Amino acid sequence: MKTILIILTVFCLFACGKDEKDAGPELEAEAMLHADNLAADGCRTHVTLHYGDLQKQIKYAPDAESAAKIESFVGQSMEKSAVITYRLTGNKKVVECGWGSKFDAEEIIIDSIR
Asked: Can you tell which superkingdom this protein's organism belongs to (predicted)?
């Protein structure tokens, strides 16, 4: 009986210690948040770092929960600048754009927007 309890306790500790979504360390950056603008030949919701410098731009695709945060923050405007804290998930996503174009981007989880 003790053996079973020990095994169950160890299993529970490992299960509780694992994050819901495997993600990297939390990062912070100034970013341009783009709302879903596919209907007007834009792109689905995405995030751009180094927005003002085309040579350094990095585009990320938010997970579903983070996309909702972006839509709420941006509101009626199509894009808005903010400081975000985020984590890379290690997954890739395809961001759909108008006229059948698309781009691959790393997926992120946004923890906060300010």
From this structure: Bacteria
Q: Which residues of the chain have pLDDT under 70?
A: 1-22
What pTM does this model have? 0.78
Is the distance from CB of 82 to CB of 31 less than 8 angstroms? yes
Residue with tokens 């903010």: 82
Q: Which domains does the chain have, with CATH numbers?
A: 22-113 (2.40.50)
Q: How many CB atoms within 10 Å of residue 111?
A: 15
Please state the φ and ψ torsions of residue 34, each to the nearest 5 degrees. -110, 120
* Single-letter code of the amino acid located at 53: D
